[in-house]
Specification:
Strand content: under 5%
Shape: globular
Number of helices: 15
Low-confidence stretches: none
Mean pLDDT: 90
Largest sheet: 2 strands, antiparallel
Strand order of the largest sheet: 1-2
Number of domains: 1
């Protein structure tokens, strides 16, 4: 452990892995919250049924969203150049996500303040927006990263972003957005089948089966697009020093249609990850059909983790390619913070992340069990 704390290359690799873990943690936990929101108008035909769906996530969604905060904080501290470019270049897209994520807690709190059908229906559709829009935009962001983002650095390393919001909404990025929406809808349906009872769970199973099959098909189709070179690809031709300075202008990068498959060709065992990214949703679909709620939810988690990991493995060591100036791409080894920053952050993470995981596990243990209409109408039940 002490050796890793003093080795700059190891610290950079560890934080690349930790960033992936945090993103997967967010997608796995808050992902089913987003999926439930996107499903709300379709799984609940009455106010009581929609309240059942809401109560399956109402007690945990705030804690789950912490993973997004942790991911953003890790990018800010460990990869400042990545933070500057992504959060400023994707500013309008991030604003849409932020608006949707703010709309969600407001809808939770206000939908039951009045008894009117129109009032509650409006807030239910707000919850739909709060779930569907982030799911779409996150996928669109990944699609743009795979294609390359229009940015470059000046001589004094000042980042310049040259894109627009409508440029982000290109066909290939929207395709990735569909993958993300299908994946999180299936995940939300798996959660509802696991946590809810009655008609809500039955409708979730029916929708989840279709969404899981769509996820597998869309992800496999994305792999074919990568294989055909539709997403382009970038290859670092200059040897990278793992302990070199954090300066993205000291390397040469070329565009290569097959670059995103190079790591899988070099290490064939890595192909297991995208294969599990297809197998996970298919297994979840089988779980929906067999009414095996636990298996379905675990399979959905597996699929999400492997789909996200596939992106990171295909791009390594690049973390943000530039479509206008390929040589300015950010990599794991030239875009990180200092050795001391990475070391101190790792020490804090080793101490506090297990506590977060233990507390999260305890919360879910306390809240174990299904939500039924009887629970919603029981005296003292929270009003949502």
């Amino acid at each position: 452990m002490l050796a890793y704390l003093s080795d700059y290359e190891s610290l950079r690799l560890i934080w690349w892995v930790l960033l992936g873990v945090l993103l997967i943690g967010f997608a796995v936990t808050d992902g089913f919250d987003l999926g439930v929101g996107a499903l709300l108008p379709f799984v609940g035909r009455t106010d009581l049924e929609r309240r059942v769906a809401i109560h399956t996530v109402a007690a945990t969604w705030e804690g789950n969203q912490v993973w997004l905060v942790l991911g953003g904080g890790a990018i800010f501290a460990a990869w400042p150049a990545l933070y500057a470019l992504s959060f400023s270049g994707f500013y309008l897209a991030m604003f849409l996500v932020l608006f949707a994520l703010i709309l969600r807690p407001v809808a939770f709190k206000y939908r039951s303040k009045r008894e009117g059908t129109a009032w509650r229906s409006a807030w239910d559709w707000a919850l739909f927006v709060g779930g569907a829009v982030p799911a779409l935009i996150f996928g669109v962001a990944v699609g743009n990263v795979l294609q390359g983002v229009p940015f470059h650095f000046t001589g004094d390393l000042r980042p310049i972003y040259e894109g627009t919001l409508f440029g982000l909404l290109n066909p290939l990025a929207l395709y990735c957005g569909l993958v993300s929406v299908a994946m999180l809808v299936a995940h939300g349906a798996a959660w509802l089948a696991f946590k809810a009872e009655g008609p809500v769970a039955e409708r979730a199973r029916a929708i989840g089966l279709k969404a899981a099959l769509a996820t597998a098909a869309l992800f496999a189709g994305g792999g074919l697009l990568v294989w055909a070179g539709a997403f382009g690809g970038y290859h670092v031709v200059t040897p990278l020093a793992g302990d070199g300075p954090s300066n993205p202008l000291t390397k040469d990068v070329i565009t290569d249609p097959g670059a995103w498959l190079a790591n899988f060709r070099a290490t064939p065992a890595l192909a297991l990850v995208p294969l599990l990214g297809i197998a996970g949703p298919l297994l979840a679909a089988a779980g929906f059909r067999a009414r095996r709620e636990g298996l379905t939810f675990l399979a959905s988690n597996l699929g999400i983790a492997c789909i996200i990991a596939t992106v990171g493995l295909s791009m390594f060591p690049i973390i943000l390619p530039s479509s206008t100036h390929p040589g300015h791409a950010l990599t794991v080894f030239d875009a990180s913070s200092s050795r001391a920053t990475l070391r101190n952050m790792l020490i804090a993470t080793v101490i506090f992340l297990p506590l977060v995981l233990a507390y999260t596990a305890w919360v879910y243990r306390v809240l174990w069990g299904k939500v039924s209409e009887r629970d919603i109408t029981a005296p003292g039940s929270p009003a949502y």
